[in-house]
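Fold these two proteins, one after the other.
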Amino acid sequence: MIIELGHFALILALVLACVQTVVPLVGASRNWPGAMAAGGPAANGQFLCLAFAFAALTYGFVTSDFSLRLVTANSHTDKPLIYKITGVWGNHEGSMLLWCVILALYAAMAAVFGGNLRPSLRARVIGVQGAISVAFLSFLVFTSNPFSRLATPPMNGQDLNPLLQDPGLAFHPPFLYLGYVGLSMAFSFAVAALIEGRVDAAWGRWVRPWTLAAWLFLTVGIALGSWWAYYELGWGGFWFWDPVENASFMPWLISAALLHSAIVVEKREALKSWTILLAILAFGFSLIGAFIVRSGVLTSVHAFANDPERGVYLLMITGLFMGGALTLYAARAAVLEAKGVFALASREAALVANNVLLAVSAFVVFVGTVWPLVAEMAFDRKLSVGAPFFDAAFTPFMVALAMLLPLGSLMPWKRARMDRVMVPLWGALALSVALGALVWVLQTGGSMLAPIGAVLAAWVGLGVVADLWQRAGKGRDLSAKLRRLKGLPRADWGKSVAHAGFGVTLFGICALTAWQVEDIRVADVGDTFDVAGYTIALDEVRGGRGPNYQTTMASIEVSRGDRTIATLQPEKRFYPVAQMPTTEAAIDNGILRDIYVVIGDPQEGGGWAVRTYIKPFANWIWAGCIIMALGGCLSLSDRRHRVAAGAARTPAAGLPAE
């Protein structure tokens, strides 16, 4: 009965989404207050229906209701409870239901917290958000029904993909979807503003917190996925330029550009056209990501489905919303004229350069991702675009971005003199270069990547310090400076913290790439060998059983000199129901290095395959991501993002669009 009620709630949500789309949009065009206000209750009702449908599906997984096709395909009675719950979104249908729940959640939040928006803009935002819900709920109901029943239920299920039975993957998709779908709000604000023919500073202030929230969730989601790949897949890497990884990274880059561009709209009423375009493209890349994950056109270990028919439907959704929004964008070009004028050396110009670097880098990733598909369709050639291309094509843009950040932060609006901007930065530049030289000397040869990374990371970090010191004021004593710093808006602190996190991640990537040591060998029980100054001893290999898997576990002692560093227990697991093996790396984490050990298969001549990696500064990569996310949280908590952007403009509220 609960399952049937969940199915009914899903269909009712589709009906409410249609109401949410049509009524407020018509009301806004006719200036009918009642119709405009109807969007809020419809959005709230749709969210409640979808939340109930999601809870009903979760109930089916927790109770192992194998009459549900989805539960049979993705669960098993022996599976731990946490993975029964995460199995709800560890598949195509359940993940699309989660997508729709989050989509409705954002619309409901706009209805609840958007009371200070102009009524017409609020109604149009909710209406556009409802149109997106109609498209995805139709896709879910008619092609991917999560409540489909089996005529003859089996005694047990087929289990969830073992790679997804991991805490990192349990929380990775929800955070990603909160980011992916959150960009729909920026899209809805952009389309609503185009329909109204009004893009101003208030609009820039309204769109920023929604974009910031989406960027924040994407940052956390991408970091969780990278961390999972690092310790779970046993490859020893943190990023593989996989198509699905790229599908989440491209919206992150565009949303970062949108955040910076919206600042210019808010402060200077410039870059209106470019900011609207970025808002459209950010959600467009999210739609492209959904297509990549679910169509099967590109091979990925992360893909949910391999169904070209579903892919065609998603492609139609992408074409409808992107094509419609870009057509409206072209038609409204005249109302997007910028008011602010700025010099080549100014904060506006630095933010433009920031946007260009981020947008072009996203385009480079997009080309590398889809080129194998284009080559096969157009030239009948099978190509593989791997890490060497992405590393060579993408890295220069990030280097330029790191060089630009401290300069842009210290430049004044409208016009700047570079000699004055550099005054507080000369010391930071000298220290950064000195640190890079020290790293180059200490590493005694080898790749220049680590010294360059040290210079850039120090430049970004010290630039943050210089910026904050400047904001503390000149000619003040230390206590007065500290009081002034304490009084800075949280958004300013958030920006500084996020930039510092970027520098930390940048150094972690460079140091790990330049200095990691890899050792692959066949070892017998009792063998010892040295890797980068550490002694590795294979003490034991034994079999065992877990809740729903069989395991081969090694015991490996790591020592340095006479001191034992750690006893690591890497595993090779086999899941009988799914007939699938997985590798569980054992890692001794440290601030300055990770010792990473993997046990492989037994060899024909005796012994076991053992892979050992020494990974310097690996955890700095995710520490930097956490710092960036904390910066986003600080900015999002700024009171200015919670107070009405248009409070001073209330006399204009309710006027019909020109």
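Now the second one:
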Amino acid sequence: MGYRVGVDIGGSFTDFALFDENTQSLKTLKVFSRPDEPGAEVLEGVRLVGERYGIKPGDISYFTHGTTVGINTVIQRKGLKLALFTTEHFRDVLEVARLKIPNMYNLLSKRPEPLIPRDRVFGVVGRMKADGSEETALDEASIARAVAGAQAAGAEGIVVSLLHSYRNAGHERAVKAIVERLAPEIPVFLSSETWPIIREYERTITAAIGAYVQPRVAHYLGSLQAALKNAGVTVDPRLTKSNGGVMTAEQGKSECVQMILSGTASGVIGAAYVAEVCGIKHCMSLDIGGTSADVAIIIDGQPQYGVGEQIGEFQIHIPSVSVSSIGEGGGSIAWVDAQGVLKVGPESAGSRPGPACYGRGGTRATITDAFAALGLVGLSEIGYSAVTIDRDKARAVVGALAEKLGRSIEETAEAIIRIAVSGMYSDVSALVSRFGIDPRDFSCLAFGGAGPMMGCFLARELNMRETVVPPTPGVLSALGGLIADIKSDFIKTLYADLAPATGAIIRDEFETLKGKALAWLHVDQGYAGEHRLTYSAEMRYRGQSFEIDTPLDSTAVAAGDTKALAAAFHAEHERVYGHADPTAAVQVISLRLVISGKTTKPEFRRVEAVSEPATPLSHAEAWLDGAYRSIAVFNRNDLKPGQRFAGPAVITQDDCTTIVPPGLTVRVDEYANLRIVSEIAP
């Protein structure tokens, strides 16, 4: 028994959640992130954990880590210089893509430059048919020419993505063997090994992204493993995955594509756990850090999943938690454009220099500076005493913008906040439309360093029923990584009509996937506990272009009961689209099996309500909603379940600041969450 540690590295701060397996208690910590030296913040945190809590590196029994190294590599375009080998005459697969522009409402919108430019794409003679049989044999001379071309272009890696390799990977494996013989110094990545799905572009871009980030991710993970070992941490670190699970760091070195959304998924898992424990049926998680705001939908305590999530300018087609990232965070910079219009983001001050009010050299106004200039932030130290807010510096940088706009400092600061909330409102509205939900039925669960600071303002604009702030909102993403289950997805493309004869094939293919899944969990991950298997299939009516991931009953799968499988698809089609056709022919495109093993979860204890009223720590004058007001200031540690008070108010704590505008009331529930609702709410 020891301490289970979860770490989440953000743009400004790195968060630590430490769960004592003996006492079932939770401790937290924040340190500044080090984008100049990734991994240094983890070691600094391990050192401070020892100083603050007396926890020795050898006491750490479990270590999970969420990282943005992969996604940042794509965004910054600092990945491996790749060549792509395709089937001859299909060299334009990345350029043609899906013939969509990024913004369908902007006629000047352009598709991004491919990660692998056309001059490093080479055709290979040889072709598989859609049924997996060979139409044209591989021509080794064409492969040799492609290798020579890749070498001449200075390629540092080669991605091989051939037609129909999801059905038969023989040609791709043969190409890899030839490349390794001719150019053993160049690593080779196969689309059939990365994620063997139907559709050429989706499989190719997913393989390309995985290969693009692999060296930087592998180097980072190797350095982290060595550093932790040198620091005295004996357990091998695990990584949070895009699908909300965790895997070993060693696996992450070779399967980088599985953890590309590592950091964003952790927060959603943490929020989902809070929602499930507290009985919040419909919830929108709002994770605002220093650089961005990540929004996800949680229903019945379960996050929503999907494929095709955006990684920088590209979609990646692996199962992942559905998260929308918005370019507004606490460190987002406010600026005035050439036309004299105030804008906010997407550029961020990050952790260095950070907002001007942090006193670390920042000279440009950020969202955090706007709140500080109004007197709403800085009423206590934040970041576990790592930061003391300098309001004068905040007013100076906001004042520089105010002069350009001909407005007061207060008006300009409030405008910065409103513009940021407006940008969030626009993107959240798109997410709401995507899932077909009514935000008035949802709670906004705000967390991250800046989530509680801005959560009430966004929830008010969306007419959401309440804003919920958990007890340790600033480190909830770290907690999410700590409690995430060991989990992985396994897929097999089938592409067959759902006829009686297909039942046995489906059963046998699932048995094969089950064998792979059990080996991954118990052998590769070293997990010895009970596991859970979840069956689904991507299905569609014959003639449809796209399919629906349909949950399947394991009993029906084992029995090869195609009638039951068809009924499951009709029901899912009815749920998604509002109609179904039980008489129409159904196709099974692919089979998917998810295996998961439970991890230890901290117990959130219910606490009896108290009768005494909440007492403010102090009062302060601050500008809020267009005027200076007397603001009640509360310390989060002093608040007890059952207490209520009305806004305007500010609640301070080590990891964040919660701001409650006028017209809202705060109730502390039995789990010590802040439940913030309109005064006229029932």
